[in-house]
Amino acid sequence: MTAEFYGTPQGAYGAYGAYGAYGAYGAYSANGAYGAYGAYGAYGLPESPVSAGAFISTRDGIVGSPLEHISPARPGVPNDTQNLKRLSREVRAAIFAFELDSKVEMSVSTGETATATLWRRTGDIEIHKADRPNVKYRELVEMTAPRQEVFEKQLAFLAGYADIRQDRASEILSQVAAPVPFYQTLSFIDPARTPFTLELLATALRFTNSCEQQFKYALAVKRPIELSPQVQPMIQTPTHGSLPSGHATEAFVMARLIWKLLLNSGTPQYQSGGHWGEMQMRLAARIAINRTVAGVHFPVDSAAGAMLGLTLAEFIFSQCTGASWTSAKFNGLHYSPSSDFDWHGLYEAAADTQKAETKGPDGIWAKAKTRKPDGNKMPALAWLWDKAQEEWTDFDPLCT
Amino acid sequence: MAYEWKTALATGQTPIDAVTYTRLAFGTPPVNGDAWWSAMVELEHTSIDMFAHFVRPDFPQGLLIPAAYDTRDRAALLDRQFVAIFARRSLIEALNENGNTYGVGNIHLGMVTPDKWLNLDAQPAPTPVMEVSDDTVVSGVIDDGFGFAHELFRTDEMTTRVDYCAVLPSPPDPKHKHASQGRVLEGDQIDAYLRDFTWSDLLDEELFYSHTGQVAFGEGKFSPVSLQRSHGTHIMGLSTGFAPIVDVTSRPIVCAVLPPRVVEDTSGISLLPSLCLALQMLSKRASRFQSGGQPVPFILNFSYGNFSGPHDGTDEVSRLFEQFLAADPRQKRWMTLPAGNGNLARAHGVFDFSDPQTCPPHLFLRVLPDDRTASHVELWMPFSDAPTPPDFVSITVTPPFGTESATIDAREGQQQTLCDSQGRVVATLLYTYEPAPTARGVITLAIEPTASLSEGKAIAPSGRWKISAKPKDISPDQQIEVWIRRDQTLPGYRPGGRQSYFDNGDYKRFGPFGRPLAVDPQNDTSPVRRAGTLSGFADGSSPMVVAAFTRKSHEISDYSAAGPLTQTPMSPTPFRDGPDATAEADQSLVVWGVLSAGSRCGSYVRLNGTSVAAPRVARLAADHILSTAEPARHWLAHAVQEAPFELPPDTSQTRMGVGGIDIPVDWSDPPER
Lengths: 400, 673
What we know:
- The complex is a heterodimer of chains A (about 400) and B (about 675).
- With about 400 residues, chain A is of the alpha+beta class.
- Helices cover about 40% and strands about 10% of the residues of chain A.
- Chain A is built from twelve helices and eight strands.
- Chain A has a six-stranded mixed sheet, with helices on one face.
- In chain A, helix 9 runs parallel beside helix 11 (about 300-320) and helix 11 packs across helix 12 (about 380-390).
- Chain B is built from 13 helices and 36 strands.
- In chain B, helix 7 (about 230-240) runs parallel beside helix 11 (about 610-625).
- Classes of the chains: A alpha+beta (about 400), B alpha+beta (about 675).
């Protein structure tokens, strides 16, 4: 893998990457979308002995005597987002990742089942001062694992969904890696046209993957293949836990962030009706359900993952823009084993709003609450968002 | 493993139906005696009420008459009538005895029906008249699943054209008290679901189909509606699909979803009870559509077929269709059926004894390994209305690893069983007599699965079985017709059936250029025949039977099955020589199939087979049924002249009927008045 891929949305090496996922770059090349990055290869390999030798001999040939009077350069401007455009994408990726990763913490408690809570750091750090930060945390996502019997009973869904594997096989195999090309079929995402949108999505997915993996690790829910020898998944089961579904989480993060870009673009076709958002969510749900068809996830994993993804998307958006955010709870103890995954119970795309309560046969299993802004936007992330947002703003024919 | 034939002693009453007998005796996994089996009985000079009365003392908890039969139906005393029932095993066994005292002349076993699919307290529905415009034609479809939320079946986003859908493989809706099996959906309820599950003008179809009872992954129930391409949706699109912009209100749709387990039971015969029930339910519903006090016409498409049966128009399915078509004399009813796709299946053979100089023939049956369903071969004797039919032939069977059986004669009580070294039955050779109007003896070779994942299950040997016949009391112009039942599991279904076929060395499969031969070569001596492969459902007198053509090559599609019928009681004027006409089913040899509705809104997919040819005719027929006084098949013959599609002049009538007919399907065109 070359460093250049670091800045592209590859699912942050987790849910998407766990299993030879990088062999699945074919999915990208199928669209030719990422072929555009090959342009960087035109510079050759600076680290190669051949080119290094050439640079040495070239210098020897032309360096000349030491110069006495060279005009002084300005010192670099510290902590300024103007520097970002001069950084390579992989360097920027590290900066964006730091801004997001440093904003969250997780705690875990064990009751009847495990509960993991993702905390969001609040309070502004004066980033121009060297004082010791004084921060607090507020609850962002609380997730309680269902009882084991829920998973055992949901094996019935896996048996039923297995019947349609032949029909979904090409989708499932294409979605082992980050299914960005599927989103490219809904909205005009392309490395040449929307490079910052891709960078934003990559940033979001890396962060999302860290969070979801932490939830999976904390809750330690076993995979279907451990509950029955008759699941026989059609792809390899990743080694990480089953709930929440990483694919569902990341698919809904992508769907909601893209939808927010469209909504906030001012571009006419995206502004009313909610059609574009609805389609993004339908795609995300399809990707999530395909993992159940494949035999590696229970429907309840997708429900938890969708809730997490929707909430993290809102969180990332708030970090980029300083907007309001949403806290959410998933209580698996009230998730009925008879419930299939239904994203409409969690979210209304037209209003871009998570539902306050989601109820099933066994009670309320999800809650969400919109919170007022409580901190500044993060400068580097804000820069990235603005760049990505600009890519979706249409031209006004009167202003040519 | 060594196998040995044993002569089974005839004890007690002989069974009426061999398959019902062998399935209950050997072929089904252990089933609780309290389980409800679906079955179709043929009552002779017995009303449903009388039948129930006869049964009640012996089996007080053993019978359920579906609510689809109302008071009038139950009181009707007819010479013969088919009735769908649910019954416990002990009653089924009693009804399958020749000479039973319950008024049952014939019986066919369906399937074990889950209790949760049944409403034992259901009552017949009231049948108020629905007044409709005088240009209305009711469109009916029975199939394995319908994506009826597709836009081709709506007049707008929130309004369906489906007036009634019986989803048999589903738990009943507690609010609907009038269906003994499954979920009944009416138009207003479908509209409510369309409203409830639409966001941003987009219907959440996963939710829609789970609430309408068709999709239930958690119950392990397979529905083809979950697939990109579903047979029923495609067929419905061709027969009665219209774009919403056309705003068609004159083609209300009534439909029934057959249980997938029945479809999975690739022996086909267990389809009958569900089909019988579905026909009854749609029949009652369709009669309600009236204009000026008169029921409006009703056209039903049923794109299913089977290989087996007597192929003379007297079989139960054909007679069931006739019963349905005549059930409401006030209502003009037409029906379309596919000719079948078994032309190259090598599932039909003939024992011909016309030349005494030649050796008695053999049929070699290739039974495939890893076949997890039973295989059945039927050897049909010539028609005979004699009180004691002649003993036409004697049959022996030699399995791949074992000795030749003792002869089975065409006489009551003849039975041989093939047992493995542990004494378990792996095959049965049995003579039964199919009563009038079929009036033929039939020797059935029932071969148990050749593979099983269950421990201790008897496994029949795969390989080449030899079926030998010796003439006895048979004249030179008479033949023994042999068909292998359909036994191929369709994609997505579970049981793992593999189709047996005749594997005689003298059967010529390919022509000089390597293409499959679609017609038996002239002077062919092979007993394996393409002729006579017409679907066992499609030999009746009234339905329009449709073969398939390939548009670009102007040929009959290779798979399209052909007549003629066997020698019938009606000979020399049988109901038909083959299909009535031929319609498009393939675009070209390369681009197979035709486009129609996919399982989800906005999708259009390809499907081929005579299944997709028949609904084209149904579509055209709906435009003309009001304006013609002719019976259906006569109308179709004239319609072929009106819109002929050129086929090779040497194509026999047994393959194409009166000819090809070009029926465009443009969903944006409104129906003709």
